[in-house]
Amino acid sequence: SRRTMGRAMGLAGLLLGLVLVPAVLVSTGLRHGAPRTEAEPEPSDWELAADAVPADSLWPLPQWVRTSPRQLQLAPSRFQLVHGAGSSAGPGCGLLQDAFRRYYEYMFGHSRRRMRSRRPLVARAEPELSQLQVVIEASDPGCDRHPDLTSNEAYHLTVTEPVAILKAYEVWGALRGLETFSQLVHEDDYGSFLVNESEINDFPRFAHRGVLLDSSRHYLPLKSILTNLDAMAFNKFNVLHWHIVDDQSFPYQSIYFPELSDKGAYSSNLIYSPTDVRLVIEYARLRGIRVIPEFDTPGHTQSWGKGQKDLLTPCYNGQQPTGSFGPVNPILNTTYDFMTKFFKEISTVFPDAYIHLGGDEVDFTCWKSNPEVKEFMKRQGFGTDYAKLESYYVQNILDIVSSYNKGQMVWQEVFDHKAQLKPDTVVQVWMANNYAHELSSVTGAGLTAVLSAPWYLDYISYGQDWKKYYSVEPLNFPGSEKQKKLLIGGEACLWGEFVDATNLTPRLWPRASAVGERLWSSSNVTNLQDAYKRLTNHRCRML
Amino acid sequence: SRRTMGRAMGLAGLLLGLVLVPAVLVSTGLRHGAPRTEAEPEPSDWELAADAVPADSLWPLPQWVRTSPRQLQLAPSRFQLVHGAGSSAGPGCGLLQDAFRRYYEYMFGHSRRRMRSRRPLVARAEPELSQLQVVIEASDPGCDRHPDLTSNEAYHLTVTEPVAILKAYEVWGALRGLETFSQLVHEDDYGSFLVNESEINDFPRFAHRGVLLDSSRHYLPLKSILTNLDAMAFNKFNVLHWHIVDDQSFPYQSIYFPELSDKGAYSSNLIYSPTDVRLVIEYARLRGIRVIPEFDTPGHTQSWGKGQKDLLTPCYNGQQPTGSFGPVNPILNTTYDFMTKFFKEISTVFPDAYIHLGGDEVDFTCWKSNPEVKEFMKRQGFGTDYAKLESYYVQNILDIVSSYNKGQMVWQEVFDHKAQLKPDTVVQVWMANNYAHELSSVTGAGLTAVLSAPWYLDYISYGQDWKKYYSVEPLNFPGSEKQKKLLIGGEACLWGEFVDATNLTPRLWPRASAVGERLWSSSNVTNLQDAYKRLTNHRCRML
């Protein structure tokens, strides 16, 4: 229908020249600046206007879009993705070369074979777009680096006859622009590939746009993780928060401590070997996605205890050990010896500047039952405030990890229980109850925050719950401008209690796409009907 | 672990001979006949007892199981599924030949290749089971027939050295017994295939055990339907209720009225051709599954109107037609001419003795707006009771379908609105509100009932909602013994508003397995912990 409408608009387009459609108008249906509630009818030209521009296929919606009804044709046999003149990147840039190959496939992959085998390319009236030239402007394009929190993901895309030009400061922006360009290209009923002349200026609203996967409750085969990284790239996510181990299993194969997975994994083949981990990191890097591993302590560690003797706290019933274990034992030097060595490995294996140290949901029951822990509490002057013991432990771990020059992410309890945190610590807010207040507190203390509370996608319900995720406004919390700047993004979390390879993809996507647009697009991109239309097209494309 | 426990129990087995474990004991954990609530601890020998018998892998649980810790080995290269002496079926029975091939694959498929390529078969101490002999006792085994409501699905299975014997009156019982036998065979850590000596006597509690799939809200590719038929066979379901068309689309390609799908399908390739329909019916037949098509009228028919002029009621605003249409127009002779021809085709294409005629959720608004309908109401003396008009229409359709010697299924409203129904009409109870009362009314009127109300599996929620489906007791409604007999079964319904090929399988299975066991197994098989264990194994096997 997009093409049909494009044709119907052809004459008008010629008469009027370029149709200016700032993205915000397209997305909200506003014509005169007045906000429109959902119940009000759309203007009668709404369908026409939306159909006439390629914006109904873009997700997440770029910050600024100008589009024309004039269409250019792409011939798969001739069209090229190339490095443009003046780019600091060239054929030696493996990351872009890989992206060129990938996006060529996305755009023409299946149809090309069909066209070649069945019929010659039909000569058409439309002018042709022959190239997309990619120009990286920074002196160091970043081809061999890993993305980080400060990566520049902005890009500028112009699609005009005879070549399209994609400019970005770094390769990370080029990756985002390639995704957008591929979303502009569409196939008509006759198998021709078309793109509307357009100009797009785009950049992310938030720097940290993450998806949490949990490979402990259920093991996730590599293929599931890689497929998810593809889907993340389609939605301009840039952080894989890999909740790799937990109580239930320890699939991470440690180089220093192989017994952790030997004993703690569900089985000897349900592990992530060093090669597997490198593959995930590289696959993610090529898509501009950071991999932040989470090694959650001192709670959520039952599986660690199987392969590491004396790491967990023995629980007592009166004077008798019960045989059960609680959180990591915070009173032993051996604990910190182990953690020092363990996190040295993690700091090397995972190149990202941040490690997530967990710190959530520490159950004090076992600590309270243990006579030696009680004695330690007394010596330290903690009284009966076990949150102080937790903070004592966490600060030791923070110090260890800091010594390896890694930044730290933690769950909100670490902040709530008053651990002394370095200013660059990222506090992840997950508790659904009054999360706006928590964001206010965290940023009020000068700390950086990431929001997850409204985006726990493992919770499912009947119907279009994506609208709920979409309608969250992350900055809607009390605080100064400075505080607002400290909220650097959010994460969609897919905890694994009821998720494995059989249902991960259909459960996460396209629901997580709603979070993806909220974190990328402008804050005034909030119209649900427009989002529904674009999301429908986007889902179809992802499939 | 089953095997390890079997070994540990080996000596005890020799001393005690066969361990008698009636299925009910295994499944409920009862040892002394007293009901145990979920919160009470299990007896300490529970794990041992359950692990020592193969019953922890059976789903749905057979009516009667006797098992021994003595294990027999199966050599894939030698083991055979064969027709036993005295069977009325032989190599000419395509249905059984196909089932033999299928179950051989399920039991040995992957491992066989591995064993052949990597190592010779190791000679073991266990005695060998060399054959499963299948004996059909009825003079007509039913190989070329279609299953029906009166099909005999009972079977008797004995597994003893050197041959296992599966006796059934008809092939339908043999299919169920083959599934059970395959569930008994397990692979140990060394790749050996083992089965415990056992005896099983089994039959279904209810004759109608269905799954509803909806191919109108989203088109379901043939592959999804066939995969689901496989899963249904794994769970001893025997009815595919194919809700094939609805408001949203008409994918059924009619022979007499091809325009229905030409105009009413989502697109020209999203249809079920006559060949597709035959394939589904035959694939189902080979698994002992009936295919009951639903052509729901007079409501839920928007898509019919696109390809069949004047079939739907024009809606009016005052004296002006609005251009919109309502339910099927019940006042025109042409409507009944069409339906006569249409259902003649359906009666031929679908061999099942029943057709589902729908009849749910008829919205009277459009009928009320139409002056000709109002005039008709007056002439017929219906006053303003549009339920009478609905019944008038439905009875005409029932008469048409009856003339083709087909039985009828209808949704509960057809009964509620007092249509005169033939005694063999099957009324499907779907409204969640007080469905026990509805069952009481339907069966009190002497009509046959099928229960779906508590099993709408398109509704999803967080966590193990299978327990909710499992805990339904269908016969828990007020009524006489005779009334209870009129409830012939139930259906798990997966409506398609939010279901397509991407999520059908993980959304339906294993949740529908809970319904499968409720409809097959004895009413006292209700222990959730035991069910959880068996369902976990069953899911793993299905995957």
UniProtKB/TrEMBL annotation, chains A, B:
Enzymatic reactions: N-acetyl-beta-D-galactosaminyl-(1->4)-beta-D-3-sulfogalactosyl-(1->4)-beta-D-glucosyl-(1<->1')-ceramide + H2O = a beta-D-3-sulfogalactosyl-(1->4)-beta-D-glucosyl-(1<->1')-ceramide + N-acetyl-beta-D-galactosamine; beta-D-GalNAc-(1->4)-alpha-L-IdoA-(1->3)-beta-D-GalNAc-4-sulfate-(1->4)-alpha-L-IdoA-(1->3)-D-GalNAc-4-sulfate + H2O = alpha-L-IdoA-(1->3)-beta-D-GalNAc-4-sulfate-(1->4)-alpha-L-IdoA-(1->3)-D-GalNAc-4-sulfate + N-acetyl-D-galactosamine; a ganglioside GM2 (d18:1(4E)) + H2O = a ganglioside GM3 (d18:1(4E)) + N-acetyl-beta-D-galactosamine; Hydrolysis of terminal non-reducing N-acetyl-D-hexosamine residues in N-acetyl-beta-D-hexosaminides
Classification via InterPro entries: Beta_hexosaminidase_sua/sub (IPR025705), GH (IPR017853), Glyco_hydro_20_cat (IPR015883), Hex-like_dom2 (IPR029018), HEX_eukaryotic_N (IPR029019)
Pfam families in the cross-refs: Glyco_hydro_20, Glycohydro_20b2
Keyword Lipid metabolism belongs to the record: yes
Signal sequence coordinates: 1-39
Family under the similarity heading: Belongs to the glycosyl hydrolase 20 family.
Function (record text): Hydrolyzes the non-reducing end N-acetyl-D-hexosamine and/or sulfated N-acetyl-D-hexosamine of glycoconjugates, such as the oligosaccharide moieties from proteins and neutral glycolipids, or from certain mucopolysaccharides. The isozyme B does not hydrolyze each of these substrates, however hydrolyzes efficiently neutral oligosaccharide. Only the isozyme A is responsible for the degradation of GM2 gangliosides in the presence of GM2A. During fertilization is responsible, at least in part, for the zona block to polyspermy.
Protein name: Beta-hexosaminidase subunit beta
Organism whose genome encodes this protein: Climacteris rufus (rufous treecreeper)
Gene (UniProt): Hexb
